[in-house]
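We modelled the chain as a single entity of 209 amino acids. Its sequence is:
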Amino acid sequence: MGSSSILIREGDQKVSFEPIGFDSNAYDEAWLQKLLFENEALLCTGSMDAPIIPICRELKLPGTGRNVYLDILAIRPSGKPVLVECKLWRNPQARREVIGQILEYASLLRGYTYSDFQALLSSRIGSSENGIFELVSQKVDAVSESQFVDQCSRHLEDGDFDLIIAGDGIRSGLLLKKSNWADNSTPFCTILNRHKWSTRHQLATHFTT
């Protein structure tokens, strides 16, 4: 990973941003999760095209007999769910378990009906008749309601989700694991690599795949 600075032009001046480390407790996984949820454009990198609409954070997923929480649940205007797991690579679990985690979350949602999906989210987005579609249609021009429900239902039934692992540095072992299971029987997964630069007064965050 390169360590060169980046330049951003502000008016007639160029501002240099230098890469900084992630040792500070101020930049933990909760901070990353909040950043992505509030700035969904950061999720749209490379093959993950815009738009992606965040629905909720820390969604409890039933069916395991233990507490399992998905960091961010989002959805596309087409009705395709997007599952996001945030990990800092200083966390040893990130190297050992993160791919297994996000695949488990996908398996827990696979086979849901649309009404089951709506019921799962009702405590987070309200209990209106079709709160998911209402939330999406407020932000983008989605397909028709009936088409949205139909397409989302098919994605849920087939377990056809977009999976995103977001972190602050890619490990070669993680990429190897991804390549080993990335076939037609698994959901699409991308790995977002977070970079952070600072000036004396500013902080910038950028993602690459």
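As a brief sanity check on the tokenised model: Helices lie at 29-38, 92-109, 114-125, 131-139, 145-158, 172-181. The longest strand covers residues 188-198.
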